Amino acid sequence: MKRKFALGLALAGILSAGAAYAAVLITAAGATFPYPIYSKWFDQFGKEHAGVEINYNSIGSGGGIRQLAEGTVDFGASDMPLTDEMISQMKLKPLHFPTVLGGVVPTYNVPGVAGDLRFTPAALAGIFAGNITKWNDAALRNANPGVNLAAHDILVVHRADGSGTTFVWTDYLSKISPEWKSKVGAGTAVKWPVGLGAKGNEGVAGLVKQTPYSIGYVELIYALETKLGYGMVQNAAGTFLKADLNSVTEAAAGAAKTMPADFRVSITNAPGKNAYPISTFTYLLIPSRIADPAKKKAITEFLHWMLQSGQKYCAALGYAPLPAQVVAGEERALARIQ
Question: Could you report the per-residue pLDDT of 260-308, keeping only the tens digit for each?
């Protein structure tokens, strides 16, 4: 508590919590992964800060990065931290502010299977590479003894748009499968070996829900909201885990202690017996220089609000809150916004 109070005093010169504003309209775009909590946050912040309206377009991380680079939004959002090369090509160099933690889960529609399926890393890589094509393949049967898996073709569903969720998924597959890394790799958009594309986490969840014997990948909240089954994934320690707040938080525990100053880090396939292996931070991409004083004040105050008041909304929406060490680092990083 003392540390938070001290940080609050340090920020007193640039923040005025709850201050009234003349009308300030802020536009943003990007990741669908955190859209449920961003929608809640932007609405609640507007209620508590009269005059501020934040309009967020959930178009995928790729779209958010592009619009930020083009200068058509005030800030972007991405599940993928930008590379040095991407940053170098932007006029206003963006700062990364982690907002929440989430998990990307394999979601499936297999008639007759009521329980949670178990997926080994090799099985997931094999399915999405097109090497495993039947639900009764030995790689799936061996991990799921006693489950009646029929000899039906597997239909893979993936993202069709530039997606941070895709980056997290393919980043994980690249870490656990040398074949995937060499033939497909990691990115917000990749050349998929097999499958059908859908737009947004919403689109993937919807297509899986209406298509028997399909499998896709979505952020945890979308599987929960659509009541789709989602599987347990074997982590680096050999434990089969279902994504939840505790297992996602555990995945971030090691990274939080050694977080780089710019917060760009991957936590997929993290060590730890109870670490869910397809976990990630998601980021707001804030220009390092904001010319409009009113927008600078509103955006900076929103970030402070998000780090303090906003984190209490995480659990109810299926996200894990930021570790305390990360929050403290971000509070200090607010001063970098010019």
Answer: 999 999 999 999 999 999 999 999 999 999 999 999 999 999 999 999 9
Which pLDDT belongs to residue 228? 87
Q: Helix axis angle, 164-176 relative to 61-70, nearest 10°?
A: 120
Model's pTM, two decimal places? Answer: 0.85
Q: Which residue type occupies 114? A: A
Inter-residue contact 7 to 331 (CB < 8 Å): yes
What DSSP letter does each residue of 18-35 carry, written as one string? T---S-EEEEEEE-STTH
Tokens of 88: 């170098």
Contact 273, 237 (CB under 8 A): yes
Place domain 2-101+280-336 in its CATH homologous superfamily.
Periplasmic binding protein-like II (3.40.190.10)
CA distance 212 to 151: 13
Sequence ranges of the chain with CATH classification 3.40.190.10: 2-101+280-336, 104-251
Give Cα separations from 122 to 137, 152, 175, 292, 317 (angstroms): 12, 19, 11, 50, 30
Element (H, E) at 220: helix 220-225
Nearest Cα residue to 37 out of 116, 110, 117, 100: 100
Homologous superfamily, domain 104-251:
Periplasmic binding protein-like II (3.40.190.10)
